[in-house]
């Protein structure tokens, strides 16, 4: 849809582009006497003329909708990988990640720390 609109804009702007180019060439390349006899004002380019300068791949739009099956096949290799660094905790024997705290041992330690902190506050 966007490519259709862009092609319509390009078709409508072709006379503007040639008029702009002729005036620009007349003001820069032709003798100053001829340019003085025909006054020319250089207007800043509009958004549509700037769109003509962009290559067509900048405004690229897919031709068809990507199906669910195609999306799933493309993302099939993005799944979660199995953990290879699972070891047994030396204290309690539950499985844990290597170089991480054991969840069950830590919960026991934190319960002890909290109860000790409560006793210190109460006394």
UniProtKB/TrEMBL annotation:
Give the record's GO CC terms: mitochondrial large ribosomal subunit
Query: What biological-process GO terms show up in the record?
Result: translation
Keywords, ordered alphabetically: Mitochondrion, Ribonucleoprotein, Ribosomal protein, Transit peptide
* Domain of life, source organism: Eukaryota
Official protein name in the record: Large ribosomal subunit protein bL32m
The UniProt family comment states: Belongs to the bacterial ribosomal protein bL32 family.
Subcellular localization is given as: Mitochondrion
NCBIfam families on file: rpmF_bact
Keyword Ribosomal protein in annotation: yes
User: Can you provide one Gene Ontology molecular function annotated for this UniProt record?
Assistant: structural constituent of ribosome
Entry keyword annotation includes ATP-binding: no
Q: Which organism is it from?
A: Cerrena zonata
